[in-house]
Amino acid sequence: MFRIIVSFLIVLLYSSIFFPAPAQEKKDYRVVSVAFYNVENLFDIHDDPLIFDEEFTPTGKNRWTQELYLKKLENLSMVLTSIGKPKIETPPALLGLCEIENLQVLEDLIKTPLLAPYDYQIIHFDSPDERGIDVALLYRPEVFVVQNTATHSLLLYDRENTSKRDYTRDQLVVSGFLEGEEMHIIVNHWPSRSGGEKSSSYKRENAAKLNRKIIDSLQRKNPYARIINMGDFNDDPSNISLQKVLGAKGKKEQVGFRALYNPFTVIASKGTGTSAYRDQWNLFDQILVSKPLIEKDPSKFTFFRAFIFNPPFLLTSTGAYKNYPFRSFGSSGFTDGFSDHFPVYILLTKELD
């Protein structure tokens, strides 16, 4: 376990929120990051007849070769090992991912030279999504010990043809111990806005109902469950799915006993986002926490602050999409970019004895 010595200036910065202490006193704090990243179409090069992945093959639309696949992995590893720097030197203890095709691409990812030293382990289940994209959780075993894993299917049906199921991503739940403290992690990738935001909103509202059901189940077992709920929700913090159905609050003082705090509400209100479309920013990628994680207890991991990770190397540098995320795929195939989303992360802090 590394130790971070917080100097006078850092103590002064934190003191009004978590660490009331004499200005001249130096303290030791443990800081870990938890992140989420939509990695934009991390597919291997092989055609799987059970899913629609033909464009990600050597003869498909994207001319997806082994060389390009390895370059995509290299690019992603650069991002994942950089998240949170320079605020924290080590990469995320917990890392949720979406838009990954299968277990193999995850195994290839964690074996890249930049990620291999951190010994990331994988929690992944195949979900029934028609495109074959799943969610997953990577974790560093020296920091997080897995206790239980589960996946929950979202049953959606077409409004026009109620016998036709709309296959989408499952919601992944991983329970374990973050340096001895029980934590529950939920990884989401809610249905897209394909067909229009309003006409597809019922899908995300149903996803929110499933998400709320999962959270209620965890809280029935332990009302003080420490829950981190992350994902690409395909809705902004102000949308009905998150604000009303899930009941996520943007201000700490509004968070009830079993409610969730969404620190990205304030970030979104400033016009900042993680993805852009038609000159409009959206903040679909978010990390929410349950009330026990915002209560002032310096002896336990406590939510400190949320961030969008958008350093210059992740930005498109020129053209009509300047300062948008430097995405992986365009009309001509692979761009040598990263993703059409920025990652997000939170810092958890704890005072050391």
Query: What series of H and E elements makes up the topology?
Result: EHEHEHEEEEEEEHEHEEHEEEEEEE
**Class from secondary-structure proportions:** alpha+beta
Low-confidence stretches: 1-24
Rg value:
20 Å
Q: Rough shape?
A: globular
Distance between the termini: 13 Å
Oligomer type: single chain
Name of the CATH superfamily: Endonuclease/exonuclease/phosphatase
- Average pLDDT, to the nearest integer? 92
Architecture per CATH nomenclature, i.e. the level-2 architecture: 4-Layer Sandwich
CATH class term: Alpha Beta
Portion of residues within helices: 10-25%
Count of helical segments? 6
- Report strand %: 25-35%
Task: Tell me how many strands there are.
Answer: 20
For this structure, the CATH topology is: Deoxyribonuclease I, Chain A
> Biggest sheet: strands, sense, closure?
7 strands, mixed
Number of domains: 1
Can you describe this structure?
The chain is α+β, with helices and mostly antiparallel strands. The protein has a single domain (4-351), classed as Endonuclease/exonuclease/phosphatase (Deoxyribonuclease I, Chain A, 4-Layer Sandwich), CATH 3.60.10. Helices cover 19% and strands 30% of the residues. The chain has helices at residues 8-15, 66-80, 103-110, 197-221, 240-245, 264-269, and strands at residues 4-6, 27-42, 94-100, 121-124, 134-139, 144-152, 156-157, 165-166, 171-178, 181-189, 227-232, 248-249, 260-261, 275-277, 280-282, 285-290, 302-308, 329-330, 333-334, 344-351. The strands form 5 sheets. Strands 1, 2, 3, 4, 5, 17 and 20 form a 7-stranded mixed beta sheet that branches. Strands 6-9-10-11-16-13-12 form a 7-stranded mixed beta sheet. A two-stranded antiparallel sheet has the order 7-8. Strand 14 and strand 15 form a beta hairpin. It is globular and about 60 Å long. It starts with a strand and ends with a strand. Mean pLDDT is 92; it is low at 1-24.
